Amino acid sequence: xxxxxxxxxxxxxxxxxxxxxxxxxxxxxxxxxxxxxxxxxxxxxxxxxxxxxxxxxxxxxxxxxxxxxxxxxxxxxxxxxxxxxxxxxxxxxxxxxxxxxxxxxxxxxxxxxxxxxxxxxxxxxxxxxxxxxxxxxxxxxxxxxxxxxxxxxxxxxxxxxxxxxxxxxxxxxxxxxxxxxxxxxxxxxxxxxxxxxxxxxxxxxxxxxxxxxxxxxxxxxxxxxxxxxxxxxxxxxxxxxxxxxxxxxxxxxxxxxxxxxxxxxxxxxxxxxxxxxxxxxxxxxxxxxxxxxxxxxxxxxxxxxxxxxxxxxxxxxxxxxxxxxxxxxxxxxxxxxxxxxxxxxxxxxxxxxxxxxxxxxxxxxxxxxxxxxxxxxxxxxxxxxxxxxxxxxxxxxxxxxxxxxxxxxxxxxxxxxxxxxxxxxxxxxxxxxxxxxxxxxxxxxx
Amino acid sequence: xxxxxxxxxxxxxxxxxxxxxxxxxxxxxxxxxxxxxxxxxxxxxxxxxxxxxxxxxxxxxxxxxxxxxxxxxxxxxxxxxxxxxxxxxxxxxxxxxxxxxxxxxxxxxxxxxxxxxxxxxxxxxxxxxxxxxxxxxxxxxxxxxxxxxxxxxxxxxxxxxx
Lengths: 446, 162
What we know:
The structure holds 2 protein chains of 2 kinds. Chain A has 13 helices and 10 strands. The relative contact order of chain A is 0.20. Chain A is an alpha/beta fold. Helix content of chain A is 33%, strand content 11%. By secondary structure, chain B is mainly α. Among the domains of chain B are: 56 residues; 45 residues, no CATH class. Chain B is 59% helix and 0% strand. The chains are: A alpha/beta, B mainly alpha. At the A-B interface, strand 4, helix 6, helix 7, helix 8 and helix 9 of A face helix 3, helix 4, helix 7 and helix 8 of B.
């Protein structure tokens, strides 16, 4: 080999060696970073079916139960507006006072509405829970989405992993249980995406339950020198079996990521034992616990994208008082999570965009079920159930209110393109052609 | 005469109730060992099947319905099934009552340990290549334990299928 050939070939080899590790799963060399708006996004799927009237419109009992003079805002961390002064039943219970008569003190100095971007009148594409949750995570209207199957269209986790090159532990879904197909939301079954690009997931109240502790809590902590032979032998066996891509049935974490997740699970059990898990001041329902675990995942993994699902307000089908209490608590824990990120996770503080949106609304007219206060209940199936709101706060988010009750702006399918926009992959997501054609980044709705 | 009648009754009884000579019927079927073939394992075990089979495999007794229900829920609640299964297995290895060979038994006869492990987990015999790999690997790595080998098998992809 002459000198010129040697220099040419070694130059190509060197260049390839440098560049090869940076080629993304999508085939692109570099992730788009020019329009990166923040390093982290936290999406609170404020689910369960939230009526506009008791949430963003601040009508409390006036619209729902016809109690004159009983309007007011029961979500002070999210929205502006004075609290109700009449028939207070949404708070905590104090001995000697009526049930629920003590509102939970507001946590945030400024509500998210004041410090962020509010779309008070958006449109949901479905009045159902699972399709609504799918919409929040896939950006697709999901009209053909079945229950008990993974989303038919790629989730934001898959878009981020495929097009921005994030690793599995950069993307998390924290579900509030294993019912209602919730654990399937970390990935679609789409042939071009799927579990190979799926996000990590805990149905946290189950993973970290007493049963979880019994079944996982006594697991040994293997050292690296223990794990290496195990994985070496396993990898040999797996190569021999050679699953095809469509047979992959789990998220693809690296060995290091798996170890980190296992250590994390054990650390949560240890903190439970010593009562060291940071939690919202009021933790008297499952949603609060789920948000507590989401905060712990944020603290440990500092993920690029985390979505946490809550759903306590669905009690509105038969218990309106319980619904109001859950709504007030959902506001409390959402405010707490935002505050926790700012105060306790320096890597994310000031560098995170927080998005909150319900998956669907609730009906205009009640069903005949009365609760302990003789208040009627509400299902979700009519046009009012397609009325929802969306809220953004955090790095670079303008303080604005876009649209209004008589001027709807935005669709729930906008959430995915908005997150894609934050991470600079909006063009990739739109080019994939798998989101609602009417969806837009909320930044473009302003 | 009386003796004659008694003899006649006995003779008749034996004739009616007596055994007939057993006939050996052969169908020309050759004896064969029935084992799994990995190329035919195309169905994925569901969570309940996986947990139930794993438990029986390690403890040589069936898991209780209550324990099975709890376990499959917890496993289902974790997105990375490998992580869930590895922790479940590791938790089992931290309990008493396991029916598994000792490390000394493994090292005394590595070949038969490997053959038995393949039969135990995969319901098949190892190929010559698989056998050679494990014998060489275990021999050259004195820190490899039965627990490590069993973990590798129980967490492998083939074990997820039948």
